[in-house]
Amino acid sequence: MTAVDAYRLGDLETAAHARLPRQVWDFLAGGSGDELTVAGNRAALERRYLVPRVLRDLSNRGMSAMVLRRSVSMPVAVAPVAFHRLFHPDGELATAQAAKAQGIPLTVSTMSSVPVEEVVSVGGSVWFQLYWLRDRNLTFDLVRRAEDAGCEAIMLTVDMPWMGRRLRDLRNRFALPDTVQAAHLALDPGSVAHRSGAGTSALACHTDLAFASVLTWTDVAELRERTRLPLILKGILAAPDAVRAVELGADAVVVSNHGGRQLDGAVPTIEVVEEICRAVAGRCPVLVDGGIRSGVDVLKALALGATAVLVGRPLMWGLAVDGADGAQQVLDLLGAELRDALGLAGCDSVEAAAQLRVIRTDAG
Length: 364
Known about the structure:
Blueprint: H1 9-19, H2 22-29, H3 36-46, E1 48-51, E2 65-67, E3 70-72, E4 76-78, H4 91-102, E5 106-108, H5 116-121, E6 126-130, H6 136-149, E7 153-157, H7 167-172, H8 202-210, H9 217-226, E8 231-236, H10 239-247, E9 252-255, H11 273-280, E10 286-288, H12 295-303, E11 308-311, H13 313-344, E12 357-360
Parallel strand pairs: 4-11, 5-6, 6-7, 7-8, 8-9, 9-10, 10-11
Antiparallel strand pairs: 1-12, 2-3
Helix pairs in contact: 1-13, 4-13, 10-11, 12-13
């Protein structure tokens, strides 16, 4: 695979779509149900317009930020995405190389195709995303593995008691190829995740067996007690839930609808991020994901109060196009766009973006 000329992230999306098998592309791009929330994430961002300021001294503008007490090159982290080796043989190792080079955190999924220890060995800042498993011992074993490996935070996904009905995967009878394994769950090639069947998603069948269908605030409190790492709760859409998370000791929350892959019709994340930021009132960082496709999108999230954004699918586009170099191309483009947008909006820093006004229109 070779690089492509790309001037926006959408150029890499087009190239990745052309290169990936249909089943794999649909697994990445698709959402649940009629994909209303997938489309809604983008539409909600497109309805928002920034009011730039002028006549500012921008000679020393920068993009660095503090996220979970670590300085990052820009207010972006790589979102957890399952099975990077579906998109490139180097998988999470390639993504980790790109994140390290850019100076931003990478979140390793429980459903990673490379063990967390190998990903951390690449270097850089690594967070571990945790699904709550039926086997509680295995759940906490994964937490200990992440701690021992050198991860800097645990990100608990709280919106997936089971996998949403992802119709593209059902129609495609999606299953993992034998060359891709769930590195943390010790799957064999003949396991349920690798067996396709009519009208089923093998991966959904596997997660139904592996994931606990009940996750409560009591479990969150226990996890808080049992890990020394900063705890991030991902999948928050309601302000009262964000407040409860802070009260139980969460160090950050991620405003997320799982990229439109869980409840179809769930509110687009950008619609509620400002309300959630007001509710937590600076007691913890608020991150947001869902449809971020440009530096301008990042700036909009910052202007609404977010500390940083998570970006997932675009990194997989880059991986599919050119491995680590393709993922780096995604981050380079995002950084160039954000630097440009900050300056043109009259901001000399990421912190200044919080003073921008954002107008919501009914168009689009």
